[in-house]
Design brief:
Layout: H1 13-26, H2 38-52, H3 60-79, E1 84-88, H4 95-98, E2 106-111, H5 113-122, E3 131-136, H6 142-155, E4 159-163, H7 172-183, E5 188-196, H8 198-214, E6 235-242, H9 243-250, H10 255-261, E7 276-283
Parallel strand pairs: 1-2, 1-4, 2-3, 4-5
Antiparallel strand pairs: 5-7, 6-7
Length: 286
């Protein structure tokens, strides 16, 4: 007899998983954002993953708050004159199609060939609001990514990097190396990333860690230093937003979590506290 297919087979499946949450939010009457492409992008694979994972509804607020915070940082930076956005591990993100971005903005999506091919097929009849380029690249190929960053850095005047949902799957050493590579081009001036505390990392491993480890995509990165982890590697925290605090303001928390959100927030070391946030990082010297 054939063995049942695992909930998550590989790292690219996590993009389908994330798209389901964007679709669910978009279909609410009080939706905080509209991503009309998310349901098609998630596809049957995304629905299968969502249905099979434990406690799938418990942390929906965090996925929604993360999307909203990234949207806000991106819109703010675009309004401040960013001319290039580099989306690393872009997955099934549809922001170039759903956000009102400047027509002259250059948006570069970087991801593995398979996930970008799926995305292109689904969105082939759609028109992005800005100049969109897709680059098929494995970010683990250090020399290839450095060459890409050098090329993009020389063609950009002021670039914003976004890594939504990427860093948690890397080791601390891999994150540090990526940060240094991103700090090399002078035009790479801002970086939006999401971050988990060691306490939250342990909690997430208990909930879905087994499924992700089977897919060779374990949760790894939850630095003790918090956002200050990046300071020795060329970046400083410019703004840090807690997902819990954001979700409370957005009206996406149950009573218990609303009470938790009233506790004083911290943007530094979190230790065993289950904290997550979205950070706007500034390149040192910019």
């Amino acid at each position: 007899m054939s063995q049942p297919q695992p909930a998550i087979r590989n790292i690219s499946d996590t993009a389908h998983w994330a798209a389901v949450y964007r679709a669910r939010e978009s279909e609410r009457p009080d939706a905080l954002f509209q991503d009309r492409h998310a349901r098609r992008l998630a596809g049957a694979r995304g629905e299968q993953i969502f249905a099979s994972l434990p406690a799938r509804d418990r942390n929906e607020w965090a996925w929604v708050a993360r999307t909203v915070l990234f949207d806000r940082f991106i819109a703010d930076q675009a309004g401040q004159g960013v001319d290039t956005i580099v989306n690393l591990a872009a997955g099934l993100d549809a922001r170039p199609y759903r956000m009102p971005l400047p027509a002259s903005l250059r948006w570069i999506e970087v991801d593995l060939p398979g996930i970008l091919a799926h995305k292109e097929e689904i969105l082939k009849d759609e028109k992005p609001s800005c100049v969109l380029e897709r680059v098929r690249l494995d970010l683990a190929d250090v020399e290839a990514r450095r060459a890409l960053f050098d090329r993009l850095g020389r063609s950009a005047r002021r670039a914003l990097i976004i890594t939504e949902g990427l860093l948690i799957y890397l080791s601390a050493g891999e994150v540090a190396a990526l940060a240094r590579d991103l700090a090399a081009p002078a035009s790479f001036q801002r970086w939006v990333l999401d971050l988990a505390s060691p306490g939250l990392l342990r909690l997430m491993r208990k909930r879905v860690g087994k499924e992700l480890s089977r897919a060779s995509a374990p949760f790894q990165f939850g630095p003790e230093e918090g956002p200050e982890f990046f300071t020795p590697h060329g970046w400083r925290p410019a703004e840090v937003r807690s997902l819990l605090q954001a979700a409370a303001q957005l009206g996406r928390l149950n009573l218990f979590l609303r009470l938790m959100s009233l506790l004083p927030d911290s943007t530094g070391r979190q230790g065993s506290r289950p904290w997550s946030g979205v950070c706007l990082m500034a390149r040192q010297g910019s």
